[in-house]
Amino acid sequence: MNELIINLGYVIYGEDFRVLKNSHVVIDSNGVISEVGHGFLGGYNTINMYGDVAIPRLINSHVHVADYSFLDYSADLSLEELVEEPNGLKYRLLSRLSPEMFKRRTIGLLKELLKQGTYAICDFREGGLKWCSKAYEIKQRFKEIKYLIYGMPVSRDPNELSKELRLLRNYIDGIAISTPTHYNVEFLKILSREVRSLGLKLMTHIAETLKVRKSMDLELAVDHLKPNAIVHGTYLSRDDLELLKSKDITLIICPR
Which of 34, 43, 162, 242 is 20 to 30 Å apart from 87, CA to CA? Predict the structure, then answer.
């Protein structure tokens, strides 16, 4: 392929997402972007898209891939009735989900995300070793998207947890839990220590609802779980955000 020039109305560029108006992108013969700059260029192999915007590829930092096997189930239920462990509707449906259906729906989702311009996803993978290993099989097969698997362990006994984590690490990129309020302090400390000993990252949902925020989920996470990142943050205060900043904990904003 010869060098390709694309003239655009706008380019969102760099780590600080600068807006470049009336700009161009040059793609070299290897299909790699070699230049981004102001102004329009001419040439034999030029595409003019003056009304369009070029943006960096998208990263979806929080998905539950298995949820796409149960779209539109009982949308009138509360969040707790839908997804709370272990008896929420999602967990009951997941227990009846076949590996074949999971694989088919997951690959379908990845293809759809690819069409939407998604570069990478981070999947909070429920179901312990069984479903993490199935997700890993799909990850090995579908290379077009960077598929990060954050396994959600099922063990509640500290001794069993250590064994489960060592099995999970063959299939995952990190560990996630639904909320620290489901565990006692000692378990959270052990989980934090075990995950770090394996060189893995750790995430949890925090402040997804006002009810769970009032249960002091953030304090449990910061003091005992010590995650690398938290998800949602819907009901965090300014002081809470300052606390996260001081502890160098990333917030993946996922408002509800």
Answer: 162
Distances (CA, A) of 123 to 51, 92, 100, 147: 34, 19, 18, 7
Which tokens sit at 6? 């694309």
Contact criterion met (CB below 8 Å) for 244 and 206: no
Tokens of 21: 């108006």
Exposed/middle/buried for residue 132 (C-beta within 10 Å: 0-12, 13-18, 19+): buried
In a shared domain, residues 78 and 203: yes
Domain residues for the domain of 99 are: 58-253
Sequential pLDDT tens for the chain (256 residues):
689 999 999 999 998 999 999 999 999 999 999 999 999 999 889 999 999 999 998 999 999 998 887 776 666 777 777 777 777 777 788 888 899 999 999 999 999 999 999 999 999 999 999 999 999 999 999 999 999 999 999 999 998 999 999 999 999 999 999 999 999 999 999 999 999 999 999 999 999 999 999 999 999 999 999 999 999 999 999 999 999 999 999 999 987 6
Give the contacts of 63 (CB within 8 A, at least 6 positions apart).
121, 122, 123, 124
Q: Which pTM value belongs to this model?
A: 0.85
CATH of the domain at 238: 3.20.20.140
